Amino acid sequence: MLALTEQEKIFIFFFPKLLPLFFASGFVGSCRDKKDCKVVFSQEELRKRLTPLQYHVTQEKGTESAFEGEYTHHKAQGIYKCVVCGTPLFKSETKFDSNSGWPSFYDVISPDAITFNDDFSYGMHRIEISCSQCGAHLGHIFDDGPRPTGKRYCTNSASLSFKPADKNNAGEGSGNASPAQTGKAEL
């Protein structure tokens, strides 16, 4: 179920017969107001590039089945990114087993990586988390996570991709040479 703005709720209330056009228009999706998204992809491109589940989760605010996601029990070191636009979202060091059935993290890689929106679907209030760059739906945040944040970013595996840690650069601040010293460009 989608979290709708007040304007959308009013539109649907007064014009219920136009509801099929409302959804078919593409107005509903991860980035309803395209000017707010820094990265925009056409729905046609996303349908070609993403799996049906990835599209459903990220663009239609769907949820994958509990305990069935690719990253639910994933333990490798690296960075979890937005499957739609590649924005880094979470470090593996912040992932923990919440026994919720979905990958859970207690912190984001950067405060501006994720946006928060009220979600009143299913007769309850939750806070939806979305990629701040492309608006892809990621999951929800809860206040029952471990220290130091007390937060649980409950995230669908289908909204994530994973970049393993470079075995040659085992950690930040490890004293390794800079990209300029190695002759490698930094992206």
Task: Characterize the structure shown.
With 187 residues, this protein is α+β, with helices and mostly antiparallel strands. The protein is built from 5 helices and 9 strands, in the order ααααβββββββββα. The strands form 2 sheets. It has a 6-stranded antiparallel sheet with strand order 3-4-8-7-6-5. Strands 2-1-9 form a 3-stranded antiparallel sheet, with no helix packed on it. Strand 3 and strand 4 form a beta hairpin. The C terminus is likely disordered.
Task: Offer a few descriptive terms.
single chain; 187 residues; alpha+beta; six-stranded antiparallel β-sheet; three-stranded antiparallel β-sheet; 5 helices; 9 strands; 19% helix; globular
Task: Produce the secondary structure layout.
Elements: H1 6-14, H2 19-24, H3 43-49, H4 52-60, E1 78-82, E2 88-91, E3 95-96, E4 104-105, E5 114-119, E6 126-131, E7 137-142, E8 152-155, E9 160-164, H5 179-182
Antiparallel strand pairs: 1-2, 1-9, 3-4, 4-8, 5-6, 6-7, 7-8
Question: What is the structure about, briefly put?
Answer:
With 187 residues, this protein is an alpha+beta fold.
Strand ordering within the main sheet: 3-4-8-7-6-5
**Based on helices, strands and strand pairing, what is the structural class?**
alpha+beta
Got a strand count? 9
Order of helices and strands: HHHHEEEEEEEEEH
Radius of gyration: 18 Å
Strand content: 15-25%
Which regions contain 5 or more consecutive residues with pLDDT less than 50? 19-30, 171-187
